[in-house]
Amino acid sequence: MSQSDQNTESTNQSWGGRFSEPTDAFVERFTASVGFDYRLYAQDIKGSIAHATMLAKVGVLTEAERDLIIKGLEGVRADIEAGKFEWSVSLEDVHMNIEAALTKRIGIAGKKLHTGRSRNDQVATDIRLYLRDAIDVISGELNRLQTGLLDLAEREADTIMPGFTHLQTAQPVTFGHHLLAWFEMLQRDHGRLRDCRARLNQSPLGAAALAGTTYPIDRAMTAELLGFDKPTENSLDSVSDRDFAIEFCSFASILMTHLSRASEELVLWTSAQFGFIDLPDRFCTGSSIMPQKKNPDVPELVRGKTGRVNGHLISLLTLMKSQPLAYNKDNQEDKEPLFDAVDTVRDCLRAFADMIPAIESRKDNMYEAAKRGFSTATDLADYLVRKGTPFRDAHEVVGKSVAYGLKTGKDLSEMTLEELQQFSDTIEQDVFDVLTLEGSVAARNHIGGTAPDQVRAAVQRARTTL
Ligand code: ARG
C-alpha cells in the first residue's frame, strides 16, 4: 500500500460529494477491499474496455474518448503488471483504484468511463470473469490428473491387491481397477465444474446499481465482447446473487473430499505396514529427529486442506443467507473465500497430477496381502452355487473352511482337495481355478468389474471422454 494510506482522514473523491466529514480512518481500512480484490485487476480492465467500446457504439462516448480510455486502461494494466502501480486503501477497492489511475493518466475522459454502470454490476462481472478463467485452469489440471490416472491404471491393469470393505480384506481386485474408481469420482467432479462454468457464463454488466440504467446501452454487445453466452435476465438478481461462487465452492468441497480419500489411501499404502506403493523422494519429506523417516507430506497436506475448502463453502453459504435484494456490502466478503478455494484446489490438483504418474507399485507386497485374509472365500461360495449348492449353505461351508484355515494357518488355496472336501463333497479338483487370485479377478468380467480385461476396456472408454 502507498504512503497515502497512512493518512488518518480522507474524503473519497469517487463518492464524497454528499459527505460533510471525512471517513473515519479505521472505517476506511475496515471497509476497503483493495488488499484482496486487486487480484481482479485484469478482469476489471477487460470489463471496462468492453463497457467503453459499447458506450462509444451507442453514442454515449465519442470514438476519441473511447480510444483514450482503452489506451489509458492498457497503460494502467502495464503498470500493474510491472509492479509500478500504487494501490491505495483510501480508494477502497480495485475498481476505484483503476478508475482514479485512468483519470490521472488521460484526464476528463477517464471520468466518463463509469457512465451507465455501477461498481455493483462491475464487481459482479469481474468475479464471473475471474472465476471463469480460474475454472479453465483448474479444468486443465483436473484433466492432467485424470490422464495420469488412466495411464497408471493401464500399467497396473494386471496388478492384484486386496480389495477392502470396512478396511478388512474383502476380495482381490486389480490395482488398475482401484485407480479407475478414483478416476470416476474425478469425472463427476469435472462434470460439476463444467456445469458451474456454463451457469455462471452470463453477463451482469448493465444491471448497474440494481435497476438498470437510463442510457441506451447494448448489453448483448458487452456480453459478446466478454465471451459471455448472453446478458443476465434480471438486474436485481445480477448484482446480488453469488450462487455461482457457492456452486464453485461446492464443486471444490466435493473434489477435495475425493482427493482426501485418495490421499488417505496413499498415506496408508506408503506405510511399512501396507508397503503397497512407493512415492518418489521428491514428494516426501524427512523428520528432523528420526533419520529413518520418509513422510508422505503431499497427500497428508491435501487431506488437511480439505477442511479449509469446506470452510469456504460454509462461509459463502452463510454470507448469502437471508440477504435481501439487491447488492449489500456483505458481498464484498465473497472474494477471500473464493480466491483461497481457487488457489487451494488448483495447487492440490497440481500436486496430485505431478505425483500420480510417479507412483511405483510394490506388486509382491500387494499380492501377498491379497493372499492373506481369505480374499477368495466368496469365489469358493460362488463355485459351490454353480455346482448346485444353495447360496446360504455354500456360505456355511466356506465359513467352516475359513475357520479351519485360521486354525491351521492355511489360505483356502493352500489346502489340499481332501481338506476342502471335509466341508463339502461337491468340491472337486477344478476348485483351484477359482481359489487363485488371478482366477478370482479374471472371473469378474463384466462392465465395471475388476478383471484386467475390463480395466483395459474401461481405460479406453474413459480416454474418449477426456
Ligand atoms: N468492493 C465492493 C465489493 O467487493 C464493490 C462494490 C461496492 N459497491 C458499493 N455500492 N459499495 O463488493
From TrEMBL:
Which Pfam families does UniProt cross-reference here?
ASL_C2, Lyase_1
Name of this chain's protein: Argininosuccinate lyase
Q: Which InterPro entries match?
A: Arg_succ_lyase_C (IPR029419), Argininosuccinate_lyase (IPR009049), Fumarase/histidase_N (IPR024083), Fumarate_lyase_CS (IPR020557), Fumarate_lyase_fam (IPR000362), Fumarate_lyase_N (IPR022761), L-Aspartase-like (IPR008948)
Assigned GO CC terms: cytosol
Q: Which family does it belong to?
A: Belongs to the lyase 1 family. Argininosuccinate lyase subfamily. In the N-terminal section; belongs to the lyase 1 family. Argininosuccinate lyase subfamily.
Q: What is the lineage of its organism?
A: Bacteria, Pseudomonadati, Pseudomonadota, Gammaproteobacteria, Cellvibrionales
- Gene3D superfamilies in the record, alphabetically? Fumarase/aspartase (C-terminal domain), Fumarase/aspartase (Central domain), Fumarase/aspartase (N-terminal domain)
Say yes or no: keyword Amino-acid biosynthesis present: yes
Q: Which gene encodes it?
A: argH
